[in-house]
Amino acid sequence: MTTTQPKAEVKEFEPNIIGFLCNWCSYAGADLAGTSRIQYSPNIKIIKVMCSGRVNPMFVVNALQQGADGVLIGGCHPGDCHYQHGNYLARRRIGVLKKVLEFMGIDERRVRMTWVSAAEGRKFAEVIEEITDDIRKLGPLKQLKRVNEW
Amino acid sequence: MVDQKLLVEEVKKIVSQEDVKYVIGYKKGTYGFAISPAFAYSPEYVDKFIFNPLCKKNLAVYPILEEKLPLKKGEKADTRKIGVIVKGCDSRALNQIIQEKGQKRENLVIIGIPCTGVIDQKKIISKFPNVTDYTDIEEKNGNYKISINGEVHNIPKEELLADFCTSCVAPNPVIYDILIGDEVEPWEPQEHNNLKELNEKTIEEKWAYWEEHFQRCIRCYACREACPLCYCKECMADMLTPQWIRRSVNLSENTAWNIMRAYHLAGRCVGCGECESVCPVNIPLMELNKQIENDVKEMFNYTAGMDVDEKPLFGMFRPDDPEEFIL
After folding, report:
1. What count of other Cβ atoms lies within 10 Å of the Cβ of residue B86?
2. Domain range annotation of chain B
3. What ipTM was reported for this prediction?
4. Which of A17, A48, A126, B203 is most enclosed, with most CB atoms within 10 A?
5. B27 phi and psi angles, rounded to 5 deg
6. Which of A77, A103, A111, A146 to mutate to test the interface with B (most CBs of B within 10 A)?
7. Between chains, do A147 and B252 touch, taking CB under 8 Å as contact?
8. Which helix (H) or strand (E) is B84 found in, with range?
9. Which pTM value belongs to this model?
10. Looking at beta carbons, which residues of chain A come within 8 Å of B247?
């Protein structure tokens, strides 16, 4: 009897994406995408936050250090924030963070922001597909990855 | 330049006021071109005060470091004011601190000095490396007059002027109680030397550039300590739960620290150049700061520390902020 060795296949790079989704809109949108059985790529790992304004830019840097290749921040549409203006504040912060990263030589497309409402399950799936495609093309993030992590 | 006598006279008046605890100024250093900060609790001490183009240190950092010990029973808090001598950029730093409610305006006596640009210590030391005694410098008609061992050198201003001074937008203090001397003519702000070149690089080249610099970072946090706007009681870099950045010195952590430092100064940095001049491994931190300053100016039309009643950049928003990057 011969044991067949599994073939050493060159695996295509699968990006790791962290999604910080706001509890009231984007997370509900993701939930809707799930309950409506819409297919989207499984690369995204979702962390629920109460508001996109809760996302400290260091969350993003930390995620990138700990092995994420991209980060998505999801919030309510402007004007729809449960806490009046959390998403407006987040928009400013992430906008500047992207500029800082770009200037340092880390592709700004790795950090994305989106407005997804609780009714937009379809849009959520499309956004995830788009980001996964983008980051798959960019390849793994080398610059910030932490060494000696245990 | 500022009249020495007038400066001493005016500061003496302020120190002798009942409600002033002390005044922070500059005095001669002990070595070469060094200048020390000086704290005058009594009018006699003020005689040591000087101001010349070597006075680069941003004194706005000291009022924040004021230690407030817990009060004993029956003891009353010391509510006396602190006087600070400020140049244009320092006054912007104070403005920003007051704006963020880090200090109260009524607790400060601000003594403004119009500034015509300061000397970069690293430049002057590389020009005159073996000067051991304190050396005085005078500015005259666009030249710096330096006398070393009886020999007088006349150096053109551009050779010694600190880089960030060329892009200064406020040579005159924007906030002050008294102004010493006449206001100077502001000059046309020029863009920082390397920024244009850096912005034309591809993303890989940019990373190669910063990687080379961040690799050398020893994370001494001198940039943080010298910065007048890094005054958090507990810095995120020192936190243990959660530990945002590890203690180990390697590229990943160094980069994370530098992103964090630069980001926390976005829309707050006043461009006084302290971080860069104290850096022991010469990381061009001002390039980073200036770039963010330009970005913020472009995106939100915001300049830090110009108006005391303005709200902090990240504490406010406008519904029409740029959002072309949002999916």
Report:
1. 25
2. 4-67+78-179, 195-315
3. 0.88
4. A17
5. -135, 170
6. A103
7. yes
8. strand B81-86
9. 0.90
10. none
Bridge partners of A44, per DSSP, are A17
Q: Cα torsion for B151, B152, B158, B160, to the nearest 10°? A: 40
- Using CA atoms, how far residue B175 sits from B186, B228, B323, in Å, is 16, 16, 34
pLDDT tens digits, chain B, 327 residues: what are they?
Answer: 677 888 888 889 898 988 899 999 998 888 878 888 999 999 898 888 888 888 888 898 888 888 778 888 988 888 888 999 998 889 999 999 999 888 888 889 999 998 888 888 888 888 888 777 777 777 777 788 887 777 788 888 888 888 888 888 888 889 888 888 888 887 888 877 788 888 888 989 999 999 999 999 999 999 999 999 998 888 889 989 888 888 888 899 999 999 999 999 998 999 888 898 899 999 999 889 999 999 999 999 988 888 888 888 888 888 888 888 887
Domain residue spans of chain A: 38-138
Question: Which of A16, A62, A104, A142 minimizes the C-alpha distance to B246?
Answer: A62
Instruction: Give B207's strand partners.
Output: none
